[in-house]
Design brief:
Layout (H helix, E strand, L loop, with lengths): L1 E7 L9 E8 L2 E10 L4 H18 L10 H22 L7 E2 L1 E6 L3 E7 L3 E5 L4 E3 L6 H7 L5 H6 L19 E6 L5 E5 L1 H4 L4 H10 L2 H14 L6 E7 L10
Antiparallel strand pairs: 1-11, 2-3, 3-4, 3-5, 5-6, 6-9, 7-8, 7-10, 10-11
Helix pairs in contact: 1-2
Keywords: Hydrolase, Manganese, Metal-binding, Protein phosphatase
Protein name: protein-serine/threonine phosphatase
Organism: Gracilibacillus salitolerans
Amino acid sequence: MKYVYQSDKGKVRKLNEDAVAVFPRDNALLAVVADGMGGHQAGDVASKLTIEHVEKLWSELNEPLENLNLEDWLTNSIKKVNNVVYEKAQSDGSCQGMGTTIVVAICTAQELVIGHIGDSRAYLFNQSTWKQVTNDHSLVGELVRTGQLSEEDAQVHPKRNVILKALGTELDLKPDIFQSEWNDFERLLICSDGLTNKITDEELHHIIMQTEDDKLSQTLINLANERGGEDNITLAIINQHEKVGEPPC
């Protein structure tokens, strides 16, 4: 597998409250995106704390992945990270009320296991189609799922940034889990809403499948910024058919 990842503060925000990382391990990798929220710099604290503790739990694994139930491991790990962020928010006055989205993907040669809380997303792509495999934990996401709002209207809804579920806002929060083999899909995208609020699914599909790997993340970030860049923009893309390599500088 080959991967790229990148984060940009956008054109308007003074601070980047998103965080992203990819951690290779043997013939697998773990990728994580977190979109922090909270007053002042608290969102930045929440997202960085999330990345740090996901990496810690991943690095502490002392048995082969094939011996693990990856769905259970990911569910329990996200719960542990949630409680770390929650305790920090409760104990540090400057972090009161902070939280973050999280989308984590464990990728092996055969399968994908993805956990998420919030409105950061995961997509699978091949040359002919794409599939969003996460459901937004947001007000407009719920309205779309219940038929009260169209996808098109959701893109411009005044409350599209209202999150119904965020990591670190209550104890023992349980993530949604998606598990699948790669099947015919070739690439995985995980990203914050700073990307998907500015670029349609159709455009994501075209750009991701037609752009050279070393130009891909910057191409997507540039387009989101050209269209306003009001939010931080963060993404990681994993190519299932390539050997693991370092992300571009």
